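Repro:
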Amino acid sequence: MSEPQGSEGTTQRLPVLEKATEPEQAPPVLEGESTPGLEGEGTPVLQGEGGNGRFWSHRRVPALVVALLLLAVAGFFLYDIAAVRADQPAMRWRRELAAQLAERPLDDTWVLVGAGVAAALGLWLIVLAATPGLRGVLPMRRTHADVRAGLHREAAALVLRDRAVEVAGVQSVRVRLSRTKADVGAISHFRELDDVHADLEATLTDAIRGLGLARPPALSLHVRRPGKKG
């Protein structure tokens, strides 16, 4: 008898498909932390209080005024010198100015007035050059090395006012904000004044901290009852 022609008795091992391993995800990097081996590649670094000074104004208007005055004076003198070199008479204003400077004594009233005006202008320019200006912009804390931010004083005062009127018992709020002090006056028409004062102090302290200013202003809070009508 012949054996049936069928499949061979040997079995073949099928290839096993292995599941591809997923790449490990790197843990998130929080601000202020550094990743090993990635220093200097743009990782944000928290800055301290350094570099949180006031913003400097460009002083465009004073610089433009001074530049125009110097240009006008230099132009007049240059024209007059060129005219004299060309055998033309000097301009009348320069002859009169030279005569007045030669004849008037140093204690003359107009000489003292002119010297005072020149000294005041010079002092004004020195003050502008030595002070930053932009008193209405409050510098904020720096959380990135290459980013500086500022908050307008009016916007910060508006935020404090909006937070204050949310306190129960507060009828109206007045906020005066400077670089060093937040003066808040509130009117309460119900609840005890001590309770309203405590809630306002906690709310405004949290609001000032939330502004993120480099130098948070000190809080000065006053709560009173509304005045009597008539």
